[in-house]
Design goal:
This protein is of the alpha/beta class and 241 residues long. 33% of the residues lie in helices and 17% in strands. The chain has one domain: TIM Barrel. It contains 9 helices and 8 strands. Strands 1, 2, 3, 4, 5, 6, 7 and 8 form an 8-stranded mixed sheet that branches. Helix 5 packs across helix 7 and helix 7 crosses helix 8. The chain is globular and about 40 Å long. Bound molecules: zinc ion (2 copies). One zinc ion binds next to loops.
């Protein structure tokens, strides 16, 4: 069964509805043999987001905790149907990993056309790495159109374990997205979106769906640490990975 080499969407106590510290998350990742964790707490558009200083000050954290590389990131919110975010490009340019998501606290669900337009707008933002939990039922979108655009603009399409466990994403929607990604050879990333250290790196439900879809491992971005490392160095230069 597929196991990620790095968990690239996780939360810490800095988002108040998450329950573990960055050190606890990294220790859990180390115990599972993961190479890296991306710390991606909520951006200011969410009610439980940390103050913006949280993101500005991430530089004080070491590159490695408990032997695991720490990527200093954010989960930004899409705030309109043009794909604008609640974080400035200036701040994003200082971070190492950016997930962007549609959350009802930051944007009311609209039509399929609205969500599609928002995602197409996000493709224009060069700082965005991952489209977070795009399979949630509230935010259906034109998968074919967006997957092509995500691929062309280098955005990774997330298969999100927490969203499957909570029922916010239906297995059939995840399978539909996987089929389209496979057809267009579009890379995905399999993350937990863990809000507790015991959930870091554990993607059993997502992995079962990958298997059901016959999804090729070569299209799973976080199946190999070396690939992630090279990609980040290309984007951010030598940051000590
Ligand atoms: Zn989210
Ligand atoms: Zn999240």
């Amino acid at each position: 069964m597929f196991r990620p080499a790095a968990d690239l969407h996780t939360h810490t106590v800095a988002s108040t509805h998450a329950y573990s510290t960055v050190t606890e998350n990294c220790r859990a990742a180390h115990e599972l043999g993961l190479a890296a964790v991306a710390m991606t707490d909520h951006a200011p558009g969410m009610p439980d987001a940390p103050h913006v200083w949280h993101f500005v000050n991430l530089k004080v954290l070491p590159r490695k905790i408990c032997g695991v590389y720490l990527l200093k990131g954010i989960e930004a919110d899409i705030t309109d149907y043009k794909g604008n975010l609640d974080v400035s490009d200036d701040l994003l340019s200082t971070l190492e990993w950016t997930v962007v998501s549609l959350h009802s606290q930051a944007i009311a669900p609209g039509s399929i056309e609205n969500h599609t337009a928002a995602y197409l707008g996000v493709c224009e933002n060069k700082w965005v790495d991952v489209i977070g939990h795009p399979t949630t039922t509230k935010y259906r979108f034109d998968m074919e159109k967006c997957v092509k655009c995500f691929k062309e603009s280098g955005k990774l399409i997330e298969i999100n374990e927490s969203s499957i466990i909570s029922g916010k994403s239906k297995p059939e929607t995840v399978l539909e997205l996987l089929r389209i990604c496979k057809r267009y050879e579009a890379p995905i990333v399999v993350n937990t979106d863990a809000h507790y250290c015991g959930l870091i790196g554990r993607t059993d439900n997502a992995s079962a769906l990958l298997e059901a879809a016959g999804f090729p491992e070569r299209l799973i971005y976080n199946s190999e640490w070396e690939r992630i490392r090279e990609h980040i160095i290309k984007k951010h230069g030598d940051i000590g990975l």
